[in-house]
Amino acid sequence: MPASTHEVIRPLSDWLVRGIRFTFFPCDWSVFPVADWWEAFAGEAADRVVNQPKECRVLAQGKWQDGELSVRAQPVRVDVNWKAVSADGPPDPPEMCFLGEARNTIAVFSQAVASFLRSETLPPVSRLAFACDMALEAENDIEARKTLKQYLPTVDFDPEVDTEMLWRINRRRPSTCNVEGLQVNRLSIWRQETVRLESVILQLMAENTQRVDEEPKEAVYCVLSLDINTTPQHSTPFADDALPGLMQELENLGVEIALRGDIR
Asked: What span, in angstroms and rounded, lies between the C-alpha atoms of 41 and 81?
């Protein structure tokens, strides 16, 4: 990770990850072995494979670790998504489902991606992307905006008064990898989010099913959505042995933002 004079605001382990994505852009389109890629990534066969030959789309999907893994090939790009799903029992809103704390979750995904990038079946690649959707829990709306203010010191807003906070920006940087002229988009979206959940508890008593309604629950989050990617101006294939290092750079840039906020 590049050295930074900005202090760490909160440890990475405070963030909770909803979903994480790795994307690669093949130089040429073909019929790709998506089901094999899913198996290479997860270590077992996918639960479901859907082919849409007219649209040139293939999806392989199944459970992996504590979430759901999908490999989706479509014209121009291939996305590897790992997202949280509701545990057994009454379903939670997607906004309240998490893979786990960010430090461990990113490390697990990063290790799998690095291994995948060394696959012999990977086609020539001209672009890479790393994306992550994560959240910090807050006591209430005002506290959430106060936390966002720490991460967005240059944005003029009053956490006590202003509401519906949303900040989106792309701060491009030159890549530090040995690829001439390569630029990296550092897109971050910051927002406050309030999730209201009407909770219903089902109690099974003997032969009767009794429904008990609780008071509505509310969860408040500071949400950070990251999309760190090499720019489309680079259209030639990366060297195969450069891919793991490039992907690590993208991940490091994303982690830097989560640690230190909206910095140049």
From this structure: 11
